[in-house]
Amino acid sequence: MIIDTALREREVTGKPIRVGIIGAGAAGRSIALQLGTPAPGIRLVGIVNRTPEHGERSFREASFAEWRRAESAREAEKAIEHGIPVLTSDPSVLTSCNAVDVFVEATGTIEYAAGVVLDAFEHGKHVVLVNAELDSLLGPILKVKADAAGVVITHTDGEEPGVAMTLLRYLRSVGLRPVAAGNLKGMVDYYRTPATQRAFAEKYDQDARKVTSFADATKLSMETTVLANATGFHAGRRGMYGPACAHVQEMAHLLPADQMLATGLVDYALGAAPHTGAFVIVYEDSPLKQVQLAYVKMGGGPFYVFYTPFHLPNVQIASTIGRAAIHHDPTAAPIGGPVCEVVTVAKRDLKAGERLDGVGGFSAYGLIDNATAARAADALPIALSEDCVLRRNVAKDAVISFDDVDAPARVVVDALWNEQIASWPQPSPGPRK
User: Fold this and answer.
1) pLDDT beneath 70: ranges in the chain
2) What is 189-247 written as a DSSP string?
3) Range of 219's domain?
């Protein structure tokens, strides 16, 4: 959906979409930098961060000349009405502020983020997730909550699920039949750790654990799970196929045709040019249409690859913000219950009594699996794995189950997880306690 005209009208009429960001890490800072340009019809009016100094850095890097600390929603509203953005360590200051229209969640947390998102819903705020950890775990039940509140929750354009969904929806709109979609990935190594990724992370001012999750397939699995839940497409197998190829167009011949036609597939192209972005495969069995597609150099069919050769979260998020606020149109959101999950897999032989260190750590990586298979195995989602203590030894590359661990209590997330499981029952020992 192209919304440049609607955003220009917001700019001209002096009624920009007012955006608050929670999180001032690398993702949050890059979004603040872009929105501070500012984007037409959009204004960054507030930042929430538990360490205010990081929020100040975000404002400075985005070239804001002035901002103000706010301790209440009323203080924030007064400053924003005078054109001054605000900084706070308390998310309720912005979630309850009448001068904020859209909330961008960019913390990468689970328990903290879930609470903030629910509070934003309660106060009528649309939520844009730059948080694949939360979305891949609880996206379906959060979508139910958003619908009940009359607001939008959406993953952002610019991240691969949003890029793929924007392309996929366009292709559907012109009468084509998408049967697969996914990411372009340069490398996957399940056994990368913060130690192996530290130098790269420091070079690019990134968190070593986050960079590890990019390399060890966890983030890839989370993103394709978000995409699966937004399309209804399945994973062809645990971890997907991920065929290596020179160019993404070769994916037309590298995924199982029967699975694409039966359920649709989410997957990834490994090492393929253009080396970034997202792809969608469509199916066309009309001989006459195949001739036309061959004429315009799309190949011989019946599977054809379309792709977007970039993904720019900090830039493309403006489109998602506009679509959510103006048209109540999510870029990428679940269409029902969980289709896929991200299960926890041991990176090495683990011993009873060890404490798992979560996403991007030393102990485990995440792999996408179909929700029916994950629940049948009582698999522990990687997003719930941090601080779980093993009850027994687990071999390298084995899936870790809920029964293998003693899990810490998470008040908000546990309630949402149990509600999600109860809302869409799968073969399972039952909701966790």
Assistant:
1) 1, 427-433
2) -TT--HHHHHHHHHHTT--HHHHHHHHSSHHHHHHHHHHHHHH-PEESSTT----B-SB
3) 160-311
